[in-house]
Queue: 3 jobs
Job 1
Amino acid sequence: MVVMPNASRTKPEKPDPSFPLTAYPNGQWCKRIRGQVQFLGVWAESDAALANHLRLAADLHAGRDSASVSSGDLTVKEMGNEFLAAGLHGSPCAARMWHCQYD
């Protein structure tokens, strides 16, 4: 979150009338989607906030969590699954240990 000095807390005007985001008092652009306020970027970077909105809007309107949108990074869950899969296929001993522990 960007902390703005009190003197500059006046909300900016929208860059153009069709701009879909609203200036929120905390210094960020936001949009209410399915009853929740989504913060999409700081006032100074309205183009980046709009790009973020366009990237996430379809998933948020469909009810999918924005965190579930893949960023291309490996998650801990995916890494753990890859590790376990490599261990199971690496040796018969690992497979026996897996079945002894989880069967």
Job 2
Amino acid sequence: MMMYSYNENQLTVKNNNIDFLSSIEKIIEIDDKLLVLVKDKSTKKIKTQGNIYAINENAEIIWEIQASTPFDGWYRPFTGIYIRDDIAIAYSPLGIEYKINLDNGRLVDIPKQRPW
């Protein structure tokens, strides 16, 4: 288990701090990484995704999540992350779940879901 703490937008791992631009919503640990979901403070429509980060035990950002498929030409920030059957899942406000490749932050589609 990785030892860490957080307050608002600051994550501390082994006495090293990472300051995010927005507040931390959720942290999950999987495969020696912390996946950090930060709240998006922009409008609901954004040009990039980037609100889930992988952090290693040295408090380094390994990757920022890949953008999901745009809807109406805009991306929506992810609203949740969780682990199901040892797989990290990102959840979008459009009701779509994606598997997260933990090596690079790329998304893997889960078949038979919306969008419409």
Job 3
Amino acid sequence: MASKAHWNQILQELDASGMGVRRYAVEKGLSKSSLYYHLKRRREEMESAQVLTLRGGAVHELNLTTRQRCGLSCEIKQGSLTLSFDELPEAEWFGALIKALR
């Protein structure tokens, strides 16, 4: 089974090729269904990534990712610092963190 990094490379090559999915899959000997699956996964990840801009122009990346059917995970990036949570933190704590990052 190919790694996520490997599939990301394949998708970048597909984008750069200008070919359609079917043609690219045939030329590279890939399964069309696998290629479509990884395109969908990438699109969903891109849709879940959000950028949060605070007063003063500070930009913080906030990723909310759907886990299974009902849970959410949270990832906050500030420079080289990354905080990851398996569940969303409590609103008061999260608000205090955002305020402290300003």
